[in-house]
Each structure stands twice: as structure tokens, then as C-alpha cells.
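A quick word before the example. In earlier lectures we treated sequence and structure as two separate objects. From today on, think of them as two lines of the same record. Here is LysR family transcriptional regulator written that way.
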Amino acid sequence: MELRSLKYFQAVYDQGSISAAAKVCFVSQPSITAAIQQLEALLSITLFIRHARGVLPTSAADKLYPLAKDISEHTHSIYHLFSDAPKPVSLRLGIMRSLGAKRMSFFIKQIAEKIKDLELTLVDPEEPCDIRVVLAHSVTNQERFVPIWQDDYQLAIPMSWPMADQKVVKVVELDAMPFIHRVPCDALNKLKEAMANHAVHFQHRANIRTIEYAWQLVSTGIGAALLPNWQEIKETEGMTLLPIEDLNLVKHIGLAYKANKENTPLIVAVKEVCENRVY
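And the structure line, produced from the sequence above:
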């Protein structure tokens, strides 16, 4: 009799379903089913009766459960007695630039709380990884996409500028306006195209790569910038955000993962974080 089989049996008994047991054990449903079938064959008993919403334990399962739980607790004690740490659950997470440190940190915190003993490695989204946080249009044909955030880009200008009192800005009003130029940025490329169509000159004041630097430069009066309407940006003193008339500058950001990995416990756990996020 394998200890793993008893562990999976205990999980099914506690959770009331094969699928829920697979999630908490971070294994596939067939692995749970095979373990239960092995126990039933070994003991010549039936442990669970399937129904529409899960499984019901039999009287044999009721008898086995306290013994399995006792063995599990002793096994856990032995494991920790001779092991410095539990085996980590490895996750390589690809992260695009311009996500915002505050919301990304909170998102990672939620993943760490969801997955016990998580060992997280952050990489560029183009590197080999288990999942990626990217723009919707960056998703490949072999991937699935779960939306997380929608970023609306607006014009950030210093509060000291006369234009700060306006409710909206027209593209023609951007002519020769000093800009904090940030690359790469798809939204900024769309704005520059619109300016070119109106024969409006785009003037570079500074060239940077990080959003966090951009709004700090705007707040000090150095120039304007195209920025997402994140809460921390809207709350920055010394600057304001204004929509640009007739321009829909929106980015859809979410989780991308290989389609053939959709039902693996690790992917399922991270998808649940996306669906139940609070930030």
C-alpha cells in the first residue's frame, strides 16, 4: 500500500470530489482516480460512489479515513523531522514591461498565497516559462488567454500647465508639446500616428523605458507623457490625466499559457487567482 494513495484518498474524502482533490494535491485527476482504484483493488472494497457533483464516501471509506489521516500525520512529522524544507513548487512566470510594480506585486502575492511552497522565478515573457503576463495581441495560436487588466492610456501633464484645467485634449493641441518619450509602448505609437495624420509635430523632451520614471518626470514639470490610468498614477501630486479626443488607447493584459497545459494543477491555480483577483 503506497502512502501517496492514502494521501489522495484522504484528499478526495475531505474535498468530496476527484477534481477538487487533484487541485489541492497539484496532480492530474487521472492520478487521483488511479490511486483510489488501486486501494479499492488491494482492499477489495468500494471507497466512493460517484454522483453529479462529486463523490460520496462508503462505509468502508469512513472506516479507512481515520487510519489514513493518522498515517498521514505521522508521515508528515517524520518528513519534517528529517527534512529542512518541503519540496518547492516551481513556477517560471514571464512578465512584460509596463505592468506597474504595485499591482504586479499584489498579483504575485496572491499566487504565493494560493500555491503552497511556491518557488517563483520571474523572467522576460520571451524566455521559456510556464505562464506569461502579456498583451492580448501577443498571445500565440498555441496559447490560451485569461484577461486580468484593462489599461486606458491618457495624456499626463503637469498641473502647472494651463491645459490642466481642460476636460479633454484634442490631438491638434499636442503640436510641439514636450513629451517624455517611452519605448516600447504600443499606445504611444498609435498617438504618434494620429498626430502625424493631423500634421502635428511630436517633440521629444526625454527618452526613457520605464513608466515609473515617466510620471515622476511629468509631476516635476519636465514634459507630458502618455500613461495608463493606474490608481497610483492618478494619485500622484503635481500632475493630472486627460483623455485625448477621438482616440481609444486601451491595452488588454492577461495570462497566457500553453493550451495543452490548461488542466494542469499549477495552471488551474493561477487561473483561479486571475478570476478572483481583488486588485
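Notice the following. The first helix runs from residue 3 to 15. We will return to this example when we discuss secondary structure assignment.
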